[in-house]
Amino acid sequence: MVRVLFVCLGNICRSPAAEGVFTDLVLKAGLEERIHIDSAGTGDWHVGHAPDPRMIEAAAVRGIDLNPLRGRQVNAQDFHDFHYLLAMDKRNLSGLHAIAPQGLESRAQLFLNFAPKAHIEEVPDPYYGGPDGFEHVLDLVEAASIGLLNQIRTEHGL
Ligand code: 4NP
Q: pTM, whole model, 2 decimals?
């Protein structure tokens, strides 16, 4: 089983969107028995909360259901449990490096490493902005999800 964890700050906007989009891609590829997917936040404000209604709505328009997801905080054990810990921005990546067990730091990386053609390193936090921000998040997350699945298929022979 390949294990993938998406990480943002609150776990109510960007990382749930990534979890939903990547899960949809994995299901369509018939790889749901081979790839385990979860998301978490570096912060603890939204533990147990559903995703932001604006993110739920924007994802629903694209056929992605985020309603069942609930927020949780990332922890050091996640570095043992997941092969890929994919940070939405550099602040999240720093947060991950701060809790990484020795020797496992390299499991954390920026998610947009998998979308080189997007020419942007970070998924911008949409929380305090307008609806366009949520669309932008989904566009970036879709591009990186395709790149990530290709990489996993190559690396793990799936
Ligand atoms: P996310 O967005 O990291 O994409 O889930 C945020 C959600 C909540 C907060 C910050 C970012 N907040 O400060 O509560």
A: 0.98
CA-CA distance, 81 to 147, in Å (whole number)? Answer: 22
Interval 121-140: pLDDT, tens: 999 999 999 999 999 999 99
Q: Which one-letter DSSP state was computed for residue 116?
A: G
Enumerate domains of the chain plus CATH numbers.
Answer: 2-156 (3.40.50.2300)
3-state DSSP percent of the chain in helix, strand and coil, to 5:
45, 15, 40
Whole-number Å distance, alpha carbon 130 to ligand 1 midpoint, is: 14
Find the 45 Cα to ligand 1 centroid distance in Å.
Answer: 9
The residue contributing the CA closest to ligand 1 atom 10 is 10
CA-proximal residue: ligand 1, atom 13 (nearest) = 10
